[in-house]
Amino acid sequence: MIDAGRITSIWRYPVKSMAPERVPFADVGPLGLHADRTWAVRDVEHDTTTSAKKLPGLLWCTARYAHTPPAEAGPGNAPEVIVGLPDGREFSSSDPGVHRALSEHVDHEVELRALPPITDRQQYRTPMATKTDLRTVFGLEDDEPLPDLSMFPVRKLAEITRYATPVGSYVDAYPVHILTSQSLAAMAAVAPDSEFDVRRFRPSLLIDSPDTSEHPEWGWCGGVLHGPHADLQPLIPTIRCVMPSHDQPGLERDREITRAIAAHSRRCLGVYGNVVKPGRIAEGDVLKLEPPARPAAESGAVKVKRALMRAVAAAIPNGGRN
């Protein structure tokens, strides 16, 4: 095993798309960080979980737990959360007025919703996305091609097509999102007028790696990161949506952020992953990499999947203008 790097920060998000809490340590398990994203905002009109991809004003809201989340916090058992609006008002998740306040702030009818039980799969479903929806999510103009999603396993693609978020979680795709300081520095070097602040990219943990490559975490995919008390498995690069370009407290709106990532980083920054050994992670933990096995060449199955993805993209309905 080799040194992958040291954890420099850990981020927990009580409410999906709202400001995070930086925590010195966190327990991790199959659903990711304990008490991560136990609340989200639901679009009342479309009856589906939504996010700052479509309602960027959510990034200006703060969220913190009223009390230390108990061990049983999770699907069907979301702890009380305190939501703060930019005007200084705060609302408890138990206050019925929170829904109206959030709706007025984002100028759209929404409700604050607790993470449903895993058995209530209907609450996780979403209408099929149109090409217009995808362009909104990825911040694309009409003449720009849709992103290549073939890096996702077929089963995961089927899941995120049917459900707004994976069943049992409010994360976008995988329980853990890992980012290195080196990736942020590499992007800042090609877009020096933009601010590649870690808060734009909403990782679970930020790692400082001794690797001199521009994106060390990409080389970890398929391997295992062994910590003192927990192990993580990076899986695929994190494809970036429009969210990093939105403004939020202390950071201005900057479309060049996503353009630079698309042009210089294959539209990816960081990696998605799973927890393979539950336990505790903490700032300062040194992670050791058990390297992945490297295939000699792209397999025939991958080539077939890429062709399938092109066919699926062609079949996605166009949708109307938002």
From TrEMBL:
Under InterPro entries, the record lists:
MoCF_Sase_C, MOCOS_middle, Pyrv_Knase-like_insert_dom_sf
Range of residues in the leader sequence: none
* Annotated ranges, domain MOSC: 120-290
Name the domain of life this protein comes from. Answer: Bacteria
Q: Pfam families, per this entry?
A: MOSC, MOSC_N
From the Swiss-Prot or TrEMBL record, give the protein name.
Answer: MOSC N-terminal beta barrel domain-containing protein
The organism named in the record is Candidatus Mycolicibacterium alkanivorans
